[in-house]
Amino acid sequence: MLQLKPGMRLRSAVCTTEMVVVRAPKVAVTVECGGTPMLPHGTQPPAGLSLASEFSAGTQVGKRYADETTGLELLCSKAGNGSLSIDGKPVAVKDAKKLPSSD
Question: Which candidate, 47, 42, 58, 57, places its Cα nearest to that of 10?
């Protein structure tokens, strides 16, 4: 389990997804992509890992992914085929904030 800090870069062990930690979680968590724990950027993944079919919805570059329960927020810097999860629970794309109307 990694100690996540804002600005930390993570990469998937099973696809091309790369993330930047925007907001660190309040509790210790395992961030996963494609069903496998993510690695610090620059770390080579172990051989023999593959993308889990239930976590293959993909990630989108420029999108923020957030989990309200833990407070974790990630920014996708490189898209991939794996989808994000925290301790096995899917993480959704963060909704954009509504701007007030300027009538």
Answer: 42
